[in-house]
Design a protein that fits this description.
single chain
Length: about 55
């Protein structure tokens, strides 16, 4: 996994979790949903990079 893509994935996951938590805390469903989507994007990016790594071995 390239360091840059790994960092992007982790950033999306962390920021997404923060948005989700903040949205839940204030009762903002839209922010909660945006946070979940961002986390999913980070998860997908991470999975994509792991598959690339497997293909290289």
């Amino acid at each position: 996994m390239s360091a840059n893509e790994k960092a992007k994935a982790k950033t999306e996951q962390v920021v997404g979790k923060a948005k989700e938590t903040a949205g839940e805390a204030v009762g903002n469903e839209r922010l909660t949903a945006k946070g979940r989507v961002e986390q999913a994007k980070g998860d997908a990016r991470e999975a994509k990079e792991k598959l690339k790594d497997i293909g290289r071995h």
